[in-house]
Amino acid sequence: MSDTGDDRVLFEVDPDGRIATITLNNPGRRNSYDAAMRDAVARCLDRVADDDDVVVVLLRGADGVFSTGADMNNAYGWYGEGGPEKGPEKGPEKGAPKGQGKARPSQRRRLAVDRRSFGFYHNLMGFPKVTVGEISGYALGGGFEMALMTDISVIARDTRIGMPAARFLGPALGSLHMFFHRLGPVLARRLLLTGDIIEASAVEHLGVFTETCDAAGVSARARYWARKAAKMPADGVVIAKEAFRLVEQSQAYQGEEVASYLFHAYGTNLQFGPGEFNFVKTRAQHGTKEAFRLRDEHFHVPEP
User: Fold this and answer.
1) Same domain for 57 and 203?
2) CA of residue 67 relative to chain centroid, distance
3) Which residue positions in the chain have pLDDT lower than 50?
4) One domain for residues 155 and 289
């Protein structure tokens, strides 16, 4: 096991099998990640990209959970200084006028940070080695994006997938081009416009993932696919991956690099009207656990 600079990310290489394994190791938070953890994963990917003896990278999560995406306990921490809202209920910032809380991150800071953040996803989506996803438990938000970006994905039927943050940051989140290309426009709109979380079994017939199986078989099946891909000529794989990237960029992803971070930066600066659920404000008032409960209560609509 190699040191990654963050014990929440594990990295190991099987040189004989030509496979590297990256494990998201933050099970206490369902393998959600902050910027530091994501940067550790990026460093691992760079090591794989530079290692001529590795053909495949297997991406997985510890304790049977892939990832619930960005850690919402630190939603605005991604942007450095600045807090969620202005207002006396937040408590005054040192040096701020009396009765005024921390300011929202500026739009220029959002754009700068999101541009760097989406560089990680762009690198994963066009990674020069075969990427295999071992997906179970939850694949939400950024975890869902990473699952969809892998070349070969094995997912448990009971895995919960979706973009729940769309309910409090708006539907223009994430890599929209990728969602429409991998999910299709109908399913992409459904998940982004409702924030629904569904089980992978509900889309098994659509072929969104390479293989959908029972939870007990996910690890073995993912490693089967990794070993299978690792048998391929290393140079041939890299050439193929660059060719795939060229085709996707010309057919599906034109403008994606700018659109992804631009819409995310705008989406994290929504203004909420009366009766609309403001997660960040609710969390500041009631705490994260209660904010999630109130979110689910607000968005619940009984089936007819």
Assistant:
1) yes
2) 8
3) 82-100
4) no
